[in-house]
Write a structure and sequence with these properties.
Elements (H helix, E strand, L loop, with lengths): L13 H11 L5 H23 L9 H18 L20 H10 L1 H6 L12 H29 L8 H10 L8 H8 L6 H32 L1 H14 L10 H4 L4 H13 L8 E2 L5 E5 L2 E5 L4 E2 L3 H5 L2 H4 L12 E3 L11 H6 L1 E3 L20 H16 L2 E5 L7 H13 L1 E4 L1 E4 L7 E5 L1
Helix pairs in contact: 2-3, 2-16, 3-4, 3-9, 4-6, 6-7, 9-12, 9-17
Length: 444
């Protein structure tokens, strides 16, 4: 299904997967995380500013705005293209999409249709306007990627520095050990790796965009509304943010210095993924050989070519690993402290925060980003984007649901929790009606 634009690391198996994984790993590095951190801070600041403008009326586009933010951060990290937060594409417009960002936005919004139908289906005359626009987006996205690939190949041929975008990373990873005078076949023989083909480069750009956007956007949307329903968690996170981010100058919030310290903020993401992981299950295959599984004191033989889908929800809520309140959203469960609990109230905030660390769950009990060789390469990318966004939003501000007529604030928070829990799976887990919640924002 994910081979819409070409073969990719998500659909490859065996030696092909090993080759593609090695050649596509280069974009996920600390240099890229610095860019993700800075752009997420900028986008989140703009998003918060737009939310504050709604006043007491509140904003009901939290989930959609989270998608916009995630899309813009991805566009910057992948292609160094920065967009103002409010510059959003009108998905109902009859016009053809004209930019990479607009095309990608339409593709991601309609990804289920694109994954199910063959690409040629969008070329049929007299399609409904919405479907025709999806077809235009697919065509424009491919055209943009091919143009970028042509430019990067020219830069490589001229011995010039690349643009640093995603296509540049993939192309140069394929060519990095090519010596002057070698062709691609000679380079392949020299290092034992076949360079990525054009279709593989396009396929991996698409799957990285798809995997990097929707999962992060959905997690942000859930976390925002869960924070709205839990003011105590907002205060708990804000205490950490105000301690480690004393300056109002966002430029002084350096990734290398700040990100590793914001453990409570990261715990919000971990707890949200525990209960509301966008992927209900992570497909695994036994491959061309049968596999053995040891469970409950016995060995189970799984035949070759068998699909196995672990139930993440059952695993992430099992009382054996998560306690009797395993169904409760409680980010503090992820924080361990080296100080005795009885003394925590009697020591300074700085000492308490320094003594905190992220809890390591029992092996195999938390696999939000999968585990083993085929774990998600974008794990750190997602964590950095999430923590930066939450820092920019919740350091100085708090959120609460807009109270309806005849409703108390406590009842409004319970209503928000009901909206969060009223979720469905449409390829990925998502809330059915997040726009029914209006959220008001104000300074602490």
């Amino acid at each position: 299904m994910l081979n819409v634009f070409g073969p990719n690391v998500s659909t490859a198996e065996g030696p092909e997967w090993q080759r593609q994984r090695k050649l596509t790993a280069t974009p996920f590095n600390e240099q890229k995380n610095v860019l993700v951190w800075a752009e997420a801070l900028r986008q989140a600041e703009d998003m918060l500013r737009s939310w504050l403008a709604h006043g007491q009326e509140g904003v009901s586009s939290t989930a959609d705005d989270s998608r916009t933010l995630a899309l813009h951060v991805l566009a910057f990290a992948a292609f160094q293209k920065s967009y103002p937060f409010k510059s959003w594409v009108n998905e109902n417009s009859p016009d053809r999409p004209t930019t990479y960002r607009d095309s990608l936005a339409i593709i991601l919004k309609n990804v289920l249709i694109i994954l199910v139908l063959p690409v040629k289906a969008f070329e049929i005359p007299f399609l409904p306007a919405k479907w025709a626009r999806v077809g235009w987006a697919v065509t424009e996205f491919r055209r943009y990627m091919l143009a970028q690939l042509t430019e990067e190949k020219q830069l490589v041929a001229e011995g010039k520095q690349g643009s640093g975008n995603l296509i540049s990373n993939f192309l140069r990873a394929s060519d990095e050990s090519t010596q002057p005078g070698q062709n691609s076949r000679q380079a392949e023989a020299a290092r034992g790796l076949k360079p990525l083909t054009q279709d593989e480069i396009l396929g991996n750009v698409f799957v990285f965009n798809f995997a990097g956007h929707d999962t992060t956007a959905i997690s942000l949307g859930y976390s925002m509304l869960l924070m709205v329903a839990h003011p105590g968690v907002q205060d708990w996170v804000a205490e950490e943010l105000n301690h480690y981010l004393p300056s109002d100058d966002r430029q002084s919030w350096k990734y290398d210095d700040v990100f590793p310290k914001l453990k409570r903020t990261l715990a919000v993401l971990l707890e949200t993924l525990r209960l509301y992981n966008p992927l209900p299950g992570i497909p695994k295959y036994t491959g061309d050989q049968p596999q053995s599984l040891h469970a409950n004191g016995r060995d189970i033989k799984i035949p070759k070519d068998t699909l196995v889908v672990p139930n993440l929800m059952a695993l992430h809520t099992h009382p054996r690993y998560w306690g009797e309140d395993s169904l409760t959203w409680r980010p503090s469960r992820w924080i361990e402290t080296s100080s005795p609990t009885t003394t925590l109230l009697h020591i300074p905030t700085s000492s308490r925060l320094r003594n905190e660390s992220i809890m390591t769950p029992p092996r195999g009990s938390f696999i939000a980003w999968s585990e083993g060789m085929r774990n998600c390469p974008g794990k750190k990318f997602a964590q950095v984007e999430f923590v930066a966004t939450m820092a920019a939003v919740f350091r100085d501000h708090k959120a609460q649901p807009a109270v309806r007529h005849g409703e108390t604030l406590i009842e409004a928070r319970m209503r928000v929790l009901h909206v969060v829990k009223n979720s469905t799976v449409e390829l990925l887990l998502q809330m059915r009606d997040p726009d029914s919640v209006a959220v008001t924002w104000g300074r602490r």
